[in-house]
Amino acid sequence: MTDLSSNLPFKVAALYRFARLDHYQSLQEPLAKLCCGLGIKGTLLLAAEGVNGTVAGSAAAIQQLVDFLDAEPAIAGMELKYSYASEMPFKRMKVRLKKEIVTMGVADIDPLQSVGTYVEPENWNALIAASDTILIDTRNDYETAIGTFAGAVDPQTKTFREFPQWVEDHRDELEGKKIAMFCTGGIRCEKATAFVKGLGFEDVFHLKGGILKYLEDVPAEESRWEGECFVFDERVSVGHGLVEGEAELCHACRNPIAPEDKLSPLFEEGVSCPHCYHERTEADRARFAERQKQVRLARARGAKEHLGS
């Protein structure tokens, strides 16, 4: 078993389940009350199609939340992936009601009716190495920028809503291929495979548990993963064994930046990075520079007060 740094103080749970959840509105208040009472932070999304979210807290608190959710028959047996963080990776707790637990914006897509074939992490390498397999990263461009599987096709989408149109535009290239798709935790590619199956493609596969499960289960020396995996919390990224990665966020554009990006002349902390420099005006950068100055002053005051206490 891979070392997950489980001695770190915060347990992070990424969870989802597609299910018939007609009473989802009634779960919002008790879930929010439970999480806040336990010191859990993060986001949970509830919709008629199920539950999705990532939260963090003590190991005991996370177990209580999982037990609460498992007590709901419709969502018992959720897809769950655990990792750990040295600091609380979320600022607040949110329980939101949504139309979709992962937004594709296509009506009548139901992973409970039709979905691609699940592939366990230990069998993934053989599938994607096959010459008749086309490997597709269903994540967005800011996620793929810091890591993906070797040989994967990057649709360069800004949002998941763009993915169906990308598939439509590339149908000819997908014909006659085994189509293997992956995402961070498995939820997006469940919906993506349901959509692709609905177009008439038969040989459709997706990575069970997503990249996170692959990085947990597959030894680094056998891995076909390159780079780090973007995660939607203050850790920014994780690597093999789900250890915290080296990527950071540009506080001007909120895109992940790798260590090499910080060597670029276009990088200035809190002001710009190679991803956003040419999309901002001088006035924007001046405003961001003033904001960063205030951040530094606030940090200095905090440190001084701490030393004086």
Automatic annotation (TrEMBL):
Q: Which InterPro entries match?
A: Rhodanese-like_dom (IPR001763), Rhodanese-like_dom_sf (IPR036873), TrhO (IPR020936), TRHO_N (IPR040503)
Q: Catalyzes what?
A: uridine(34) in tRNA + AH2 + O2 = 5-hydroxyuridine(34) in tRNA + A + H2O
**EC number(s) per entry:** 1.14.-.-
Sorted UniProt keywords = Oxidoreductase, Transferase, tRNA processing
Q: Spell out where the chain crosses the membrane.
A: none
Enzymatic class? oxidoreductase
SMART domains, A to Z? RHOD
What's a GO biological-process term for it? tRNA modification
Q: Which top-level group of life is the source organism from?
A: Bacteria
Q: Which Gene3D superfamilies match?
A: 3.30.70.100, Rhodanese-like domain
> Which intervals hold domain Rhodanese?
129-223
Q: Listed GO molecular functions?
A: oxidoreductase activity, acting on paired donors, with incorporation or reduction of molecular oxygen; transferase activity
Instruction: Name the PROSITE patterns on file.
Output: RHODANESE_3 (PS50206)
Physiological role: Catalyzes oxygen-dependent 5-hydroxyuridine (ho5U) modification at position 34 in tRNAs.
The record's similarity note reads: Belongs to the TrhO family.
Name of the protein: tRNA uridine(34) hydroxylase
- Naturally occurring in which organism (per UniProt): Phyllobacterium pellucidum
Organism classification: Bacteria, Pseudomonadati, Pseudomonadota, Alphaproteobacteria, Hyphomicrobiales
